[in-house]
């Protein structure tokens, strides 16, 4: 029994150490930073994610938005960033057993889509005012190119105009397990991220800003809308 226990402890320490060695962002200490490292390893070796980074500012607030095709999408965005990302996530997902501790550690912000979603926006705004980075999928759920058109949520425009934070649109292509959530991170892919220039939204340019975001994250790489 002691031998097996020792082996388990040894394996856990090795996993923790490898994660810390490959971590690039500081999420608040070793207890969570090791997961950053493993996220990057998964995306690099399982999903063949190229060495490319979102052009985020070194300090100060920013908003990252992307199309949402699978459960691996947050991992891809984390891997393309050198700063921690605070994701807006549906409350029912945030409160799932087993993974709830992880979402909480990562600073995810739960959104009550059936009750008071404005609370999540206010929390996200406070985070932006404190110089953090908010990440969200403005379609509100997984939405594939083959699905009927879905209008993006206006919350991203409000956050951007209230905080004056730049918006960085990212288009995700190449995920093999599209439409899947929990299995997607472990199905090999050859992913490509297409990053558009930062957008700046104001109350006056809200509609145009949302249209620009929609165009950037919905248009497949290499295809331009008329």
What does this protein structure show overall?
The chain is 39% helix and 12% strand. It has a 6-stranded mixed β-sheet with strand order 3-2-4-1-5-6, sandwiched between helices. With 226 residues, the protein is of the alpha/beta class.
In CATH terms, what is the fold-level topology?
A: Glycerol-3-phosphate (1)-acyltransferase
Largest sheet: 6 strands, mixed
Q: What is the CATH superfamily label?
A: Glycerol-3-phosphate (1)-acyltransferase
Globular, elongated, flat, extended or rod-shaped: what is the shape?
A: globular
What count of structural domains?
Answer: 1
Number of helices: 8
The total count of strands amounts to 6
CATH architecture identity: 3-Layer(aba) Sandwich
Helix content: 25-40%
- Overall pLDDT confidence: 92
Percent range for β-strand residues: 5-15%
Q: Please give the alpha-carbon distance between the first and last residues.
A: 67 Å
Biggest sheet: strand arrangement: 3-2-4-1-5-6
CATH domain class: Alpha Beta
Rg on CA atoms, Å: 18 Å
- How does the helix and strand content classify structurally? alpha/beta
- pLDDT < 50 runs, ≥5 residues: 221-226
Query: What sequence of helices (H) and strands (E) makes up the elements?
Result: HHEHEHHEHEHEEH
């Amino acid at each position: 029994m002691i031998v097996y226990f020792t082996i388990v402890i040894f394996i856990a320490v090795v996993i923790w150490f490898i994660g810390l060695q490959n971590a690039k962002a500081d999420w608040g200490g070793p207890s969570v930073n090791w997961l950053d490292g493993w996220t990057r390893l998964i995306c690099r070796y399982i999903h063949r994610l190229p060495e490319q980074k979102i052009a985020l500012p070194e300090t100060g607030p920013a908003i990252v938005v992307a199309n949402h095709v699978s459960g691996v999408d947050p991992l891809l965005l984390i891997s393309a960033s050198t700063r921690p990302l605070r994701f807006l996530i549906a409350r029912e997902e945030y409160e799932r057993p087993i993974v709830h501790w992880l979402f909480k550690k990562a600073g995810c912000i739960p959104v009550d889509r059936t009750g008071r979603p404005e609370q999540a926006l206010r929390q996200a705004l406070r985070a932006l005012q404190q110089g953090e980075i908010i990440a969200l999928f403005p379609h509100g759920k997984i939405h594939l190119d083959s699905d009927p058109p879905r209008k993006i949520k206006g919350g991203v425009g409000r956050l951007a105009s209230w905080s004056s934070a730049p918006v960085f649109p990212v288009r995700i292509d190449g995920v093999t397990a599209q439409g899947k959530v929990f299995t997607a991170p472990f199905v090999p892919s050859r992913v490509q991220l297409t990053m558009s220039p930062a957008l700046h939204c104001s109350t006056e340019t809200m509609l145009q800003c949302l249209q620009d975001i929609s165009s950037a994250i919905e248009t497949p790489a290499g295809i331009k809308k008329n």
